[in-house]
Amino acid sequence: MPASERSGVRLAWTGKERALAPAPGGPPSRVLRAPGGAFFHGDNLRSLEQLAGELEGGVTLAYLDPPFLSGRAYEAIVKDKSVPRSGPLKARPKRFAFDDRWESRAAYLEALGQRLVLISHLLAPHGSVVVHVDTKTSHYVKVLGDEIFGDDAFVSEIVWRYRRWPSKTPNYQRVHDVMLRWRKDPSVPPRFNQAYEPLAASTLATWGTTKQRAVVEKDGRRSRSSRTSEPTKGVPLGDVWDIGVIAPVARERTGYPSQKPEALLERLISTLTDEGDVVLDPYAGSGTTLAVAARLGRRFVGCDQSDVSLETTQARLRALGQDLAPERLRRPAPPAYARSASST
Which one of 75, 104, 107, 278 is CB 3.0 to 4.6 Å from 94, fit for a cystine? Predict the structure, then answer.
């Protein structure tokens, strides 16, 4: 059954038909390759079309960190040794990074939907797609994703909680983002490596660092717990993650405006992929996903049309021994799903 038929609730807006049926064509992206992966420099919609020829059904994790519909244009801070890092931000040299201004929420959803449709064809049956958004769009994106992948394919809403300087507002401070996760095929066991977090202080005080065993009565009721000699790994990881934002003087900071911490991507990649799996980031930005994937022994593929993104990602991958070199441009054959559609 198609995913659209498995979704009980659907969005309606002008332009939706274009979102769910992206039109092929357009100039191909410039491709740069490294021993462990590739970077497609250009419109990520065209990049995803190109990837269909070589990665269809082969991506274990697609992580998307799209623009947040903020209505702003963003600049990256250029690293310049002649300007003190401790000085004011406005005094540091900057370059245009990306534009997050849209005609409407409908235009935003149309663009994101087109890319999610193409990604759905790239995912392996055991694969996952994770879309990183905030409260401005998360509810719309959840319903849109359910229609594309099927609401029975939705498995996780991960809350990334962080601390930052408080702002003056007659409201609760916004201190979290949301990551929405769908599986490609609900009938196939997903790639998932169980992670653990530390035990609570009260649990440690009562039970120490060994596992507990439930003592169950004959009627099935749990009466108490007993201590074992087997060391515990901790508590299975929950869906609220307390991970700090990147400090202004942190070594990993690149100056790219939407950069996410490596610890966040490391947790996603290590739990949702195995070594050698393909990790795709169609909004590569600062290159964090690609750099972490390379460090963890995964194959990486990134897409972005920003020159700053390409240069930043190249530098991070070069430090890991993954030099991106240009590939001769060629127009790929249309993907299998497009060929089958045109023959009907």
Answer: 75
pLDDT at position 342 is: 47
| H-helix or E-strand spanning residue 323 | none
Q: Write down the residue that tokens 């990520």 correspond to.
A: 44
- Residues with pLDDT less than 50, the chain: 332, 341-344
DSSP summary character for residue 199: P
C-alpha 166/C-alpha 262 separation (Å) is 23
DSSP label at residue 21: S
Q: Which CATH number fits domain 3-194+237-342: 3.40.50.2000, 3.40.50.12230, 3.10.150.10, 3.40.50.150?
A: 3.40.50.150
Angstrom distance (rounded) from CA 22 to CA 337: 12
Report the alpha-carbon distance of residue 306 to residue 310 in Å, rounded. 6
What residue spans in the chain does CATH classification 3.40.50.150 cover? 3-194+237-342
